[in-house]
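Single Protein Entry

Contents — chain, fold
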Amino acid sequence: MSDLLAIGASGLRAYQAALTTVSDNIANASTPGYARRAVQLAENTSTNGVLAQERSTIGNGVAVVGVQRLSEDLRNDAVRSTGADLAKTESSITWLSRIQDALTGNQLGGRLTEFFNAAKGVAADPTSSPARTAFLEAGTSIATAFQTTARSIHQVTTDLDATAQSSIDQLNRLGVTLAKVNEGLGRAQPGTTAQAQLLDQRDKALEELSAISDIAVSYRDGGRVDVALGGVNGAKLVSGVTSGTASYVRNAAGTVSFAMLLGGQTSAIQPNGGALAGIVEGAQRIADARTKLGDIASGFVAGVNQIQAQGDDLDGNPGQPMFTQASDPTNFSLSLTSWRGVAAAARGAGTRDNGNAIALQTLRASGGFEADATSLVSDNAATLSGRQQVADAQGAIHDGAVNARDAVSGVNLDTEGVELLRFQQAYQASARVIQVARETLQSLLAV
């Protein structure tokens, strides 16, 4: 009877643990980073001091071997890899969209067209004060358009700096978290709930990290990991229980770079995926847009001022510069204070001549300022559209990787419901075994 009681008691303990594990799965079905658990059961081989030959036909009950965390490293790696690719493209889309808004929000191309159309009005009637006034107003508008467009691009740069620094701060926090998890895993017993919880924290941190930068993960004993950014030979973020400190810098040319300090050694971070890679690309495109905008402004101001210098104003005086430009080529303003200063006439040809005003149309064609402004916008728009198409494809690939991972580690409530009923029945049967043993023992004692 003692054997029967022991077997029943082992069943109660084992299936209670199984019920607890299933209940934990159900409770954490929507918890991010949680991997499904399963209790590992095995036949109890202990003889409890009885000779093995006497126990050869008698079972010893069941024992809980450990708690298995249902997760596959290869599937997790696939989720992180595809997630890093998607995060890079999404980050790139963010900055391309911001650049597009900056380039189109102030209608720079339209203001250039209005300026040269106003110049046509002066050429049609060189002595007309309304035509000259409209021309100067168009000059003020185009100067304002360049300035506000440049300020908008500068604001995009400021926001990119803030986003990059925030990403670096988060990366550093995740590095510290992973180092602490490694330390905990070094003490955790294999097959325990504590180890499973630490592994959940590890994989959740790694997935969050891969959204910032592509990572290479090296697995150690006990589930501990070393992490490098930008590939296997990239900068080490985590090595054992030590984490590095990343930093962000943007130089005067607009190029950004990242560095890692670990163990007194500094190494460059060269991300190929994640938000950091998108930031690198975004910073370069912002710098290129700012440079191209400055080139258009420089050519425009130099060309208009040169034509002004070649002609005579309405009072017969040599034309003065129409615009005054600062060190930043996009920062220029109208310098003519009177409509009489517009040099519409060719030098010495008389006030009613329009030769110099017509030269502005020649500048319009040769300078290609409107075409350049349009190209600046359309090229960025085409790149943005291409990135959006890539993001759609990468999103589908990432979703597939997530589904494949969740097929192993995700909690299916229907499956857990079936398991709950199965273990409940086994628990009740084990309790019935104990009850039968007691009833039998009482019957024997009553004889």
About this structure: The chain has a mean pLDDT of 92.
